[in-house]
RNA sequence: GCGAGCGUAGCCAAGUGGUUAAGGCAGCGGGUUGUGGUCCCGCCAUUCGUGGGUUCGAUUCCCAUCGUUCGCCCCA
């Protein structure tokens, strides 16, 4: 084309899509507000070592997916690939723990990962997430998960599945890791290339390999849940009980693990059947070690993040309809009427109606076509004869019903207009 | 990063190694209705993502490049 285009893996969000974004965001706001979560906004870039220390140097995200650059002051900075580390950093930096009690926070915004783009996966993508800092209670886990379910439920999404697991404490995981590596060692040559590599890097990942031979080998491997300490197991069961009490159904998936190092105990994902390989629309878990690892006080925490692009795909796919938001469309004929049309539009707007005014000056018939397509419930028609000044024809587009309205009387018929809009 | 597919107007889409690149939707102009959603007429790609090559001649073949889709990897 020879023109400059948006960088690979980024997208413009055009007005017709923005309505979906606003819908998602406004539902998130109200769900979070009801649970008294407060919004936090952290920088889009951070010092690179925040992510190295927080997410883990061995992870793919840090190892090969970060947008890292050196600024003019020779600082190594990175566009945030996720926001939990940033929130934890802010929590420490501003001593939020000193405010006492539990900090319930939420955020939304763009994240950046250098990955191969595909449907539901971009290089700049957007997440909404929550973080609950300062509570070790199983109830905190259950609350966070419940809020995620409420959020997605209020969006009207169908066919969602909550999968749940515990990866235990750091000690549990270390012990299990050794047991798993011991078990796999004799099969080393039979493993696929990726899994061989993961044997040293991240053995837990081998568990959900899609390679058939590897799956066979893994079938008889030790099971993580069976290697948990009694305390961890109890905790796992407590969270499950709470979820059940809340009426949330879930599936235990013993091979569910997370890609980021900071997770402990509860891990969960909410998946959709309608997104192919990018099925996860929300994921999170407990991260008791992160704040301390970043140099803060020992602070247990739990949180999750949801990918907005994926939610958007689902909303569209499941044909969730959003109102277009136009109440009235104003058309006019002749110079006198045109000036009055603008006045009328402004008057209606100040009465809190959504009003589109035809500025084209084109033939009446054309203006009507546009009124029709605007999705407005009714249009106001202003004529050009002397006798018609000060009045307008109000025509309801669905029924064709038409009445004369005096512009001076508009305010008095507002309740009637509202009622009519409601019913149409 | 690996493997495969795709890229024709705002959108969907047919097409061929050879003078003028179907069609539909949307859009624009006009006609019929004083005022619409129907109908009719007209206009909407010197150009087939971009760059190069092969050829007398390429949108059609080849190479590169960019973008995108699917799978792997990874992840929200």
Describe the protein.
This protein is α+β, with helices and mostly antiparallel strands and 424 residues long. Helices cover 38% and strands 21% of the residues. It has helices at 15-34, 48-55, 60-64, 84-93, 138-154, 170-184, 193-201, 212-219, 230-245, 290-293, 308-317, 335-350, 364-374, 414-423; strands spanning 38-39, 45-47, 67-70, 76-79, 103-112, 124-133, 160-166, 251-252, 264-272, 280-286, 301-307, 328-332, 355-357, 378-382, 391-396, 402-406. Strands 1-5-6-11-10-9-7-8 form an 8-stranded mixed β-sheet, with helices on both faces. A 5-stranded mixed β-sheet has the order 13-12-14-15-16, with helices on both faces. The chain has a 3-stranded antiparallel β-sheet with strand order 2-4-3. Helix 1 (15-34) packs antiparallel against helix 5 and helix 5 (138-154) packs parallel to helix 9. The longest helix has 20 residues, at 15-34. It binds one RNA strand of 76 nucleotides through residues 1-2, 5, 8, 59-61, 64-65, 82, 111, 113, 115-121, 125-127, 129, 194, 205, 210-211, 258-260, 269, 276-278, 280-284, 304-311, 331, 333, 362-373, 379, 381, 383, 393, 395, 397, 400, 402.
